[in-house]
Write a structure and sequence with these properties.
Number of strands: 4
Radius of gyration: 21 Å
Largest sheet: 4 strands, mixed
Length: 205
C-alpha cells in the first residue's frame, strides 16, 4: 500500500519484490550474501584508500580523480540498487509520473516474523557500519582539504560526501519512515517529557 507524503512528494511503501527474498531459513548471524557484502564495502573503502595513497604512487591528479570518482559512482549504484535490498531489505528510488512530477519512493520490507528471518544480523551490522562510517570520513577529508588549502581535491571530496551522503540519507528515510512520521515521533516524545515534568512538579514535597 502506497502512502504519499503531500509535503515533499515522497512515498513510503513495502518492498514490492520482498516475496522473492523471503525464505524459511532461520535467522542467523552468518553472512548469507557474501558477494553483496564484499562489494558493499569494496568500492567505498577502495575510494578512500586511493584518495589517501594516490599521490604516493602517481603524480597525475587527473588519473587519481577519475579513479576515485569511478569508484564512488560504482559504490553509489551498488549500494542504492543491490546491497540495501539484499542485506537489510531496504531500497529508495525516484520516478516521474505522467504529469512530469518527480516522486521519491522509500521502500522497506514489512517487519513480519517470517520476513525478518531473511535479514542477517551480521550483514545488517556490516551494511550500517559501512554506510555511516565512510561518509563521516569524507566529511573529515573535506575539512582537512579546506584547512590545508588543497583546493584541487575539494571537488573530489565533495563528490564523496554527496554520493555517499545521499545513500545514507535515503536508507535512513527507508528505516525510520517519512518526515511526517519523524515529526510525529518527535512531537510525541516532547509531549511525554512535558507531561512527566508537569506530573513531577505537581507532586507534594
Amino acid at each position: 500500500m502506497l502512502q504519499q507524503d503531500s509535503n515533499d512528494d515522497t512515498e513510503d511503501v513495502a518492498l514490492f519484490d520482498a516475496e522473492e527474498e523471503t525464505t524459511n531459513r532461520p535467522k542467523k548471524s552468518k553472512i548469507r550474501h557474501p558477494v553483496a557484502s564484499f562489494f558493499h564495502l569494496f568500492f567505498r573503502v577502495s575510494a578512500i584508500i586511493v584518495y589517501l595513497l594516490c599521490e604516493l604512487f602517481s603524480s597525475s591528479f587527473i588519473a587519481c580523480m577519475v579513479t576515485i570518482i569511478l569508484l564512488l559512482s560504482c559504490d553509489f549504484w551498488a549500494v542504492k540498487n543491490v546491497t540495501g535490498r539484499l542485506m537489510v531489505g531496504l531500497r529508495w528510488w525516484n520516478h516521474i509520473d505522467e504529469d512530469g512530477k518527480s516522486h521519491w519512493v522509500f521502500e522497506s520490507r514489512k517487519a513480519s516474523s517470517q520476513e525478518s528471518k531473511t535479514v542477517s544480523e551480521a550483514e545488517s551490522r556490516i551494511f550500517w557500519l559501512g554506510l555511516i562510517a565512510c561518509p563521516v570520513l569524507w566529511v573529515v577529508f573535506a575539512f582537512s582539504a579546506l584547512f590545508s588549502f588543497r583546493v584541487k581535491w575539494l571537488a573530489v571530496v565533495i563528490m564523496g560526501v554527496v554520493l555517499q551522503g545521499a545513500n545514507l540519507y535515503g536508507y535512513i528515510r527507508c528505516k525510520v519512515g517519512s518526515r511526517k512520521n519523524l515529526t510525529s515521533m518527535a512531537t510525541s516524545y516532547l509531549g511525554k517529557q512535558f507531561l512527566r515534568q508537569t506530573t513531577g512538579d505537581d507532586q507534594p514535597s
